[in-house]
Amino acid sequence: MTGLELAVEFTDLWGDMKPAEINTMLANNVSYELLEFFSTYTDDFVELLPKDMNPDELKHQLPNLLIIGYIIRVLEERLT
């Protein structure tokens, strides 16, 4: 499985997961400290946006994007 195939498969699964399933997967694969880092990074990143942009949706979605990228990388390492 290529990295792209893995990413597509994982993001499809992520979209179908219930919050409890996501929380369980995160608890098994991502440290609490790393989750806190992603949340803090998001807050810092949003501060850089132009003031006319609404940051609420970005603040909600960016941590998910960062976590998905991290999990895909972990999966790639485990498969090789």
3D structure, described in words:
The protein is built from four helices and no strands. The protein has 80 residues and is mainly alpha-helical. The chain has one domain. Helix 1 (3-16) crosses helix 4 and helix 3 (32-46) packs across helix 4 (56-79). The protein is globular.
Give short descriptive properties of this protein.
single chain; 80 residues; mainly alpha
Strand count, sense and closure of the main sheet?
Answer: none
Number of H- or I-type helical stretches: 4
Mean pLDDT value = 84
Beta-strand fraction estimate: under 5%
Number of strands: 0
Broad shape: globular
Overall structural domain count: 1
Topology at a glance:
Layout: H1 3-16, H2 19-29, H3 32-46, H4 56-79
Task: Give a summary of the structure in a few sentences.
With 80 residues, the protein is mostly helical. The chain contains 4 helices and no strands.
